[in-house]
Design brief:
The protein has 200 residues and is α+β, with helices and mostly antiparallel strands. The chain has seven helices and six strands, in the order H-H-E-E-H-H-E-H-E-H-E-H-E. 40% of the residues lie in helices and 23% in strands. It has a six-stranded mixed sheet.
């Protein structure tokens, strides 16, 4: 089961693997700062989108929040395309990336009208079962209410029982899941599951 989003979820969006983690971080940073980014919510990888839980001054858990907007996927896709052009990706690079990412896109869930989103929920292994994610989820829910949002969604791997339990404790309910055989082969997970929670 893939657990690290940098090594498990996005490795194949790049044309090479010379230094995969650095390349991925660089790609996300470029998309986030592109000329399309101001209108391209969510900014999932920007540090300003994250809540971080620390113990003794060290980060132990984190999640990101964002306000959903109509057409956000199209805006993000436009930003990604612009950055890939600027980085000199060839048509062969683009085609190979698209083919490798196909199992991921096959499991993407359609929009359901949520106006607040939570993603990238993670905890260091040594800091699990300390309630850090519950604290972060409470903060994320509070932030969504402060922004007058009505419905929050988050999507995670099927089988990620620790996150599922934390979401249930925070009042989320399973809305939908999508499974694909090719996703298991590519990512080590059967697919994705969406959780929803009313904020009003």
């Amino acid at each position: 089961m893939a657990t690290d989003p940098l090594t498990g979820l996005f490795p194949d969006c790049l044309p090479s693997s010379r230094n995969p983690v650095d390349e991925r971080i660089g790609l996300f940073a470029a998309v986030d700062s592109s000329r399309f980014a101001p209108c391209a919510l969510p900014r999932l990888c920007h540090y300003e989108s994250f809540w971080v839980a620390e113990t003794d001054g060290y980060p132990q858990a984190a999640l990101s929040t964002f306000q959903c907007s109509a057409g956000r996927r199209a805006n993000v896709a436009e930003a990604q395309s612009a950055v890939r052009r600027d980085l000199g990706w060839t048509e062969k690079d683009l085609e190979a990336s698209s083919n490798r990412m196909a199992p991921l896109w096959a499991c993407f869930l359609p929009d359901v009208g949520a106006d607040w989103g939570i993603e990238n929920i993670a905890t260091r292994p040594e800091s699990r079962r300390l309630g850090l994610v519950s604290v972060l989820l409470d903060q994320a829910i509070r932030e969504g209410r402060e922004r007058a949002c009505k419905l929050v969604q988050t999507t995670t791997y099927i089988g990620n029982s620790a996150v599922h339990a934390a979401l249930a404790k925070a009042g989320f309910q399973v809305s939908e899941e999508r499974l694909r055989e090719e996703t298991m082969a590519a990512l080590g997970t059967a697919g994705f599951v969406r959780f929803l929670r009313a904020l009003s």
